[in-house]
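The material for today's practical consists of a large collection of protein records. A record pairs a protein's sequence with a compact description of its fold. Instead of coordinates, the fold is spelled out as a row of discrete tokens. We will come back to this pairing of sequence and fold again and again. Here is such a record, shown just as it appears in the course material.
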Amino acid sequence: MFLLKISKIWQELTAFGRVGLVILLLLIFMAVAAPYITWQPHNISSGPSLKPPGGAHLLGTDELGVDLWSQICYGARVSLIVGLGTALLAGLGGAIVGTFAGYRGGWTERVLMRLIDIMIVMPDLPVMVILAAFFGSSLRNIIIVLALFSWSHPARIVRAQVLALKEQGYIKMARIYGGGDLYIIFKHLLPELIPILAVSMIRLAGMAIVTEAGLSFLGLGDPTSRSWGLIINHALNFSGIYFTPFWKWWLFYPWLFLTLLITALALLGRDLERIADPRVAKG
């Protein structure tokens, strides 16, 4: 059944969506298989410093002689963990808040919506920088901080869907025949919410990956993670990076893989949104 659903989704994807899915799967494979597809350590020197791509160093080395291909493969793990962790925390948290607000209504909805409005208008990046600096730059703390500032968007989307769904005839009939709140939510509402929530979580993942790279670029990322943003930070802090040929591999490759991942998520998310909501295609 699962394979049939995957096959159906593949058939409904456009060419751009399929390209995005293939790129995403390749990057996931690169992250998972990092110990097997890299032949140099990613955290200690294994060759001459600033060696151009070629030979034993596929993408060259940095100023310490650390292999860039290994750093990028292990850095993919960081980006995917941050994206997935933030998407799960913020998506599920936002879904719970949105479902509760939309289904219960009344003062509960008004209070939760005001909280959501405050979170949406709050300047998230400056507060994220302060919180990341205050709580520490571990990967777990970064995911928690990103989730705290991301749950409001899926909450609004889910709440709007719940408001429309709870007026459907079959929902009203289930309530009349004694269906409890939990039964209605898990039996009738969640199956309808999962597709649009999945699209929202893909967008959250892309946002989280970019934000983590930005925090790492500012020096607030996990210094032990070797994330792509941290590689770019080290490259730009190298004196005269733009006046030497070193940028051609030290700066270019982490930027390229970060761009590929974000583009893949954007292409896939756009197609999945069209599949989940046919009105998008008509618009």
